[in-house]
Amino acid sequence: MNRLEQLFQKSPQAATFAGEYLKYVSEVLSNIDAASIAAFVDVLLQARECGTRVFFIGNGGSAATASHFANDIAIGCRSWERPFRATSLTDNVSVMTAVANDYGYDKIFTMQLQTLLEPGDVVVAISASGNSPNVVSAVEWANAHGAKTVALTGFDGGKLRTIAQINVHVPTNKGEYGPVEDAHMVLDHLIGSFLMQRCRAEVSVEA
């Protein structure tokens, strides 16, 4: 039984469940390694400095997080002179369905990277389980072709945790998708906020 099931048994009313859920998410967030977040930020800053691209990938709720992350990094940071060249590979439905139909769903990210990726680019893979075949294969391909790879994971991290060069892990019990995806969105806004402030500080210094 995972913690969410336990919380419901303990607090079957919406208000009490809400309070317990929020406490648990706070606990989950407190267990994320801040040094791994800093390492991810450094990769993003290096990509900006070098003009290399950052590709976000994920399935389901993590696909939505990938889109949100790319938006907050590329647009939300308001850095136009030296932009973060971030994009999500989950957003082009025509491309994804063409690849899935013709080559298989496991290839939907790898084949996009085969077209777009250049050495030094960054691939950020978001997966609660860390075992989605299309995400794992994309990271393996990116590693083999000169990319920097970052994983945002949950549960025990799965295979993705072992193959990504940098891993920001959200430790939870298996199947607790909600808290993991909540934490991944907090990471989005945490990192996006830091990078926005960093870019503003640079402008102030230059002025």
Tags for this entry?
207 residues, alpha/beta, Rossmann fold, 2 domains, five-stranded parallel sheet, 9 helices, 59% helix, 13% strand, globular
Structure description:
The structure is a single chain. With 207 residues, the protein is an alpha/beta fold. The protein folds into two domains: 1-30, no CATH class; 33-206, 3-Layer(aba) Sandwich (Rossmann fold). It is built from nine helices and five strands, in the order αααβαβααβαβαβα. The protein has helices spanning 3-10, 14-30, 34-50, 61-74, 93-103, 110-116, 133-144, 158-163, 177-206, and strands at residues 53-58, 85-88, 122-127, 148-153, 166-169. It has a five-stranded parallel sheet with strand order 2-1-3-4-5, with helices on both faces. β4, α8 and β5 (166-169) form a beta-alpha-beta unit. α1 (3-10) runs antiparallel to α2 (14-30). It is globular and about 50 Å long. It starts with a helix and ends with a helix.
